[in-house]
């Protein structure tokens, strides 16, 4: 397809390949799950059903992505470990962690009802994610020691805290009592005051967290004529609990872990501080630049086929995307503009945004996870007669643009792309509907210019200027931004105009400067007298 003059903006995208031989870990964790668990009345300090839901999501992740071999989770976090030398999405960090958090979130929302049949999901849950690189299997071992130690410490502390609170202490008093206490003190407190033997009485799932891993099992696929079974090895996902997931014993007992990640050669009881630092490394986006988060549906070609989206454009599916994007703007006040077409959306953060201190993976993952959550939640509203057959997911990246001009060229690039693709797809499907095969239609359109395509459409449809009769949303994509809405308020002194800010979805030409001149407040805060 033709290149547009705006394509140079692609050169601002950064490579983020994770070099071999690093082992890739993706960790996801709940965004403000404290509030989420309060609103949904999770039991304290642990809600078994909520943990089971997390485990179900982890299991789904392992089943979906063959290269993920092992995962470990507790509370609202999960770490996923890829096999050594994986080529998954050619090891691009942003792509990998964003699509995992997106898939995880989508599964969380879709499985919610099964685990909480009596509770409605009150708002869209979302998680953050990041990649952690382990230079060797020893570093991976240290990482696991660290996470399981955290699980233990948190759980022991919370068990004490909530028992004290249940006995009538205020949260402040309970916290004061636990200040500076050691592990041993807390065990004693539990035993003396509450008759709780921490190791015996507290379930493994709370104390140890949960591992989800792949094992090899043999399935009988058929029987030979002589009655002998024909077996084929298959990988099965199982869930286990273990006191020490980083021990040689646990690790080397699971053949799949040994084979795909390598052996643990000695036991490790403590993590070295220099390892911890590398686990906490975060990539910061350049200050005073426009950050664009672009999300894109993964395998939406298949998703749209399975869900019988209309071709080439499905208004319901596009409206669903638009509604999710509007939700994102309401959630993240630093996002000033969004532009969407097909299965992609670009979100523009204001230049001076300090969202997540400009940490790339936090912004990328929070946005894509929230979007995915909304997509799964709103599906029924927009596609009421279609069952969602499997959870959709999106990948995301962050790109910084140093000036307003380049940012506008970026948006123009996406809109030109929308136009080129839409014109091509409209011709393609019209040719197919007229009786041509898909490959004939493809051949027919090869090398045709815009003008020829328009003439073809006129000819096939019998309508002059047919292309321009198509809905604006198909031709121009969707722009989402905050705008003033003036409402006539009926009060005693007569109708007075009252304005409030709302998120609007419009289909306009954003390549021409007139749009930006008419809405100076979107990109320039000086003109912005209504956004928070
Ligand atoms: P990856 O993004 O690489 O995972 O592949 P993808 O299958 O998602 O394809 P890509 O993002 O390049 O293109 C989006 C695809 O989504 C289109 O090619 C269509 O197949 C599909 N799609 C998006 N919107 C619609 C729609 O409104 N109707 C139909 N029928 N298909 C759509
Ligand atoms: Mg896609």
The strands making up the biggest β-sheet line up spatially as: 4-1-3-2-5-6
Structural class: alpha+beta
Cα radius of gyration in angstroms: 27 Å
Task: Note the beta-strand portion.
Answer: 15-25%
Distinct compounds present: guanosine-5'-triphosphate, magnesium ion
Ends distance: 41 Å
Helix share bin: 40-55%
Detail the poorly predicted runs.
none
Described by the principal axes of the CA atoms, the overall outline is: globular
Largest sheet: 6 strands, antiparallel
**Can you count the helices?**
20
Strand element count: 12
State mean pLDDT (0 to 100 scale).
93
Task: Kindly summarize this structure in a few lines.
The protein is of the alpha+beta class and 532 residues long. It has helices spanning 33-39, 48-64, 93-115, 137-166, 171-178, 183-194, 198-201, 204-207, 248-252, 255-261, 273-279, 300-306, 315-331, 360-382, 404-433, 438-445, 450-461, 466-469, 472-476, 513-518, and strands spanning 23-30, 68-74, 77-82, 127-134, 210-223, 229-240, 290-297, 335-341, 344-349, 394-401, 478-491, 494-506.
Describe this structure in words.
This protein is α+β, with helices and mostly antiparallel strands. 44% of the residues lie in helices and 21% in strands. It has 20 helices and twelve strands. The chain has helices at residues 33-39, 48-64, 93-115, 137-166, 171-178, 183-194, 198-201, 204-207, 248-252, 255-261, 273-279, 300-306, 315-331, 360-382, 404-433, 438-445, 450-461, 466-469, 472-476, 513-518, and strands spanning 23-30, 68-74, 77-82, 127-134, 210-223, 229-240, 290-297, 335-341, 344-349, 394-401, 478-491, 494-506. Strands 4-1-3-2-5-6 form a six-stranded antiparallel β-sheet, with helices on both faces. Strands 10-7-9-8-11-12 form a six-stranded antiparallel β-sheet, with helices on both faces. Strand 11 (478-491) and strand 12 (494-506) form a beta hairpin. The longest helix is centred in the first third of the chain and has 30 residues, at 137-166. The model has no long low-confidence stretch (mean pLDDT 93). The structure holds guanosine-5'-triphosphate and magnesium ion. Residues 296-297, 300, 343 line the site of magnesium ion (MG).
């Amino acid at each position: 397809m033709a290149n547009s003059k705006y394509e140079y903006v692609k050169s601002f995208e950064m490579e983020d390949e994770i070099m071999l031989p690093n082992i890739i870990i993706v960790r996801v964790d709940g965004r403000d799950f404290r509030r989420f668990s309060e609103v949904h009345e999770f039991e304290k300090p642990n809600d078994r059903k909520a943990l089971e839901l997390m485990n179900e999501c982890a299991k789904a992740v392992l089943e979906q992505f063959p290269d993920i071999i092992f995962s470990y989770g507790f509370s609202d976090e999960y770490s996923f470990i890829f096999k050594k030398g994986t080529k998954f999405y050619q090891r691009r960090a942003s792509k990998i962690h964003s699509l995992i958090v997106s898939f995880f979130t989508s599964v969380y929302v879709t499985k919610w009802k099964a685990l909480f049949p009596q509770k409605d999901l009150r708002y869209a849950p979302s998680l953050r994610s990041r990649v952690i690189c382990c230079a060797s299997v020893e570093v991976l071992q240290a990482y696991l020691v660290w996470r399981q130690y955290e699980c233990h410490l948190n759980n022991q502390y919370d068990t004490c805290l909530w028992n004290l609170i249940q006995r009538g202490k205020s949260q402040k008093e309970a916290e004061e009592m636990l200040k500076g206490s050691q592990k041993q003190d807390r065990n004693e407190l539990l035993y003396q005051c509450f008759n709780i033997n921490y190791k015996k009485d507290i379930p493994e799932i709370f104390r140890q967290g949960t591992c989800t891993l792949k094992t090899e099992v043999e399935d009988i696929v058929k029987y030979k004529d002589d009655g002998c079974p024909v077996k084929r090895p298959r990988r099965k996902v199982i869930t286990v609990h273990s006191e020490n997931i980083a021990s040689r014993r646990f690790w080397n007992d699971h053949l799949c872990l040994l084979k795909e990640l390598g052996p643990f050669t000695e036991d490790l009881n403590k993590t070295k501080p220099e390892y911890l630092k590398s686990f906490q490394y975060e990539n910061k986006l350049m200050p005073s630049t426009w950050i664009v988060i672009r999300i894109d549906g993964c395998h939406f070609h298949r998703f749209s086929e399975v869900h019988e989206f209309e071709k080439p454009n499905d208004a319901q599916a596009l409206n669903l995307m638009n509604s999710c994007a509007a939700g994102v703007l309401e959630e993240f006040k630093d996002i000033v503009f969004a532009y969407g077409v097909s299965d992609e959306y670009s979100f523009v953060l204001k230049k001076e945004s300090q969202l997540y201190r400009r940490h790339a993976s936090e912004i990328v993952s929070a946005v894509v996870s929230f979007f995915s959550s909304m997509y799964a939640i709103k599906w029924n509203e927009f596609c009421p007669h279609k069952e969602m057959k499997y959870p959709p997911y999106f990948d995301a990246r962050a790109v910084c643009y140093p000036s307003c001009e380049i940012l506008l060229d970026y948006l123009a690039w996406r809109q030109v792309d929308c136009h080129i693709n839409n014109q091509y797809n409209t011709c393609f499907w019209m040719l197919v509907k007229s009786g041509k095969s898909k490959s004939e239609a493809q051949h027919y359109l090869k090398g045709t210019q815009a003008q020829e395509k328009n003439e073809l459409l006129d000819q096939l449809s019998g309508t002059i200027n047919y292309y321009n009769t198509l809905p604006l949303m198909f031709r121009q994509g969707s722009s989402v931004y905050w705008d003033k809405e003036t409402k006539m308020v009926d009060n005693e002194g007569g109708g007075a105009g009252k304005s409030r800010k709302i998120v609007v979805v419009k289909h306009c030409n954003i390549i021409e400067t007139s749009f930006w001149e008419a809405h100076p407040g979107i990109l320039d805060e000086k003109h912005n007298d209504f956004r928070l």
